Amino acid sequence: MPPTPTPAVDSAGTKREVRRRGDVVFSGSALAAGIIILLVLAAVTLFLIVESIPAFAGDPNETQFLNGTPFLEYVWPFVFGTLWASVIALVVATPLAVGIALFISHYAPRKIAAVLGYIIDLLAAIPSVVYGLWGALVFSQILKPFYVWLNDTLGWIPLFAGAVSPTGRTILTASLVLAVMILPIMTAIMREVFLQTPTLHEEAALALGATRWEMVRMAVFPFARGGMVSGAMLGLGRALGETMAVTMVLSATGAVSFQVLTSNNPTPIPANIALNFGEAYGDGVNVLIATGLILFIVTFAVNALARWIVNRRAEFSGAN
């Protein structure tokens, strides 16, 4: 065991603990890292606000991309596309992440759980451009027959109505690719939270005659509720900011439509920036930066909402 710090006595006769050099260096480094994070965030925020002013204050008739349209009216379809694609991805990925994390932590044998956990973690290391190529060239072609069947069977539902895209590169395809991309990080967080459930809670539920699923529902889920929300919101944050995969998969048109099988697809903000930045000049660059500011605000709002939910539910969590 390391030696206990020797208390020192000052001139007034009171004892004070002598801090070691390593403790001082570590605490100072941690403080500096926290300050740097805040400074970088402040610098990014200031840059976005300053560079966005011409887009808000300029003449829409003389600004590239606006073409006489007020900025907020111009950016609204892209905000809709960002939220719509991310919400679909989250709805698809969340139950899969919960199921996989639960299987790894409570159902699979140890060897299988280790291999499956490694495979899931490996998905996070695949570059987004690879996901984009796979989604555009392979996955979209696989989904086309399914889209036709979905349209024929459930076409009476507005989501699946309309003419099916002949390429398969729809907002639903882009969202499914996003779901695959955010699945590893969501699964990893939920898996670790499930593993931290107190063993006594689980054994007590089983001792009272609960089945394995009842034990999970009564002991694991209440304890892990905050971590599950955090994992889902972290995945949503990545989906909101994903650029290359969506740009390569989606046949973007900038429309506002809830139909997920047609060629008339909404455009997320990151894809709009990636598609137009190469030809932007003058105030057009400021317009794209301003759309980035809107995305920054949306992402910040989502993370703030997630933190509020976690804090609000913490007092009811089994962790307490």
Describe the model.
This protein is mainly α. The protein has 2 domains: 1-57, no CATH class; 61-314, Orthogonal Bundle (MetI-like fold). The protein contains 10 helices and 2 strands, in the order E-E-H-H-H-H-H-H-H-H-H-H. It has helices spanning 21-57, 71-107, 110-123, 128-154, 171-195, 199-207, 212-241, 244-249, 269-276, 283-314; strands at residues 7-9, 15-17. It has a two-stranded antiparallel sheet. Strand 1 (7-9) and strand 2 (15-17) form a beta hairpin. Helix 2 crosses helix 5, helix 3 packs across helix 5 and helix 5 crosses helix 7. The radius of gyration is 25 Å and the shape is globular. The protein starts with 6 loop residues before the first strand and ends in a 6-residue tail after the last helix.
